[in-house]
Amino acid sequence: MRIYPGFRFYMVTSFQNSSPPSSSNIPEDFGYRGLIIGLIVIGTWAVSIGFLFTIDVSQTPFYLIIPAMLWQIFLYTGLFITAHDAMHGVVLPQNKTVNDLVGNVAVKIYALFDYQKLVKKTLGTPLSSC
Fold first, then answer.
1. Quick one: residue 102, left, alpha or beta (phi over 0 = left, psi -120 to 50 = alpha)?
2. What letter does residue 21 receive in the DSSP assignment?
3. CA distance 123 to 52
4. What pTM was estimated for this model as a whole?
5. What is the number of H-type helices and E-type strands within the chain?
6. Are 11 and 1 in contact (CB under 8 A)?
7. pLDDT averaged over every residue in the chain
8. What is the pLDDT of residues 51-65, one digit of tens each?
9. Cα radius of gyration rounded to whole Å, the chain
10. CB atoms near residue 105 (< 10 Å)
């Protein structure tokens, strides 16, 4: 296991002689960082999509449509990452219920997938293979 200073995230480089990562590998001072980041992503997505639904695309200059599309792509990637992190229990490791709620919301607004089915497929697989 390699620790990258400054980021305080752990990256598993090999699974040959180790067990798959779990929320127990998260530093004790991790706190609410994952939850705050997840809620920022979900909130920003909600505000952004709400705003984009109100604009008239036929009256919007083309040079503004492309950045709006790229912004939404960025936010949907954040939703995927939030859901994926929740499946591994790292959004809020100390509270599985809140962790799963955030993951469920993120995966529902990302693609209407069933969070519980995805968790069953994800559990037991190494982070590097997901």
1. alpha
2. P
3. 36
4. 0.72
5. 4, 2
6. yes
7. 80
8. 999 999 999 999 999
9. 17
10. 18
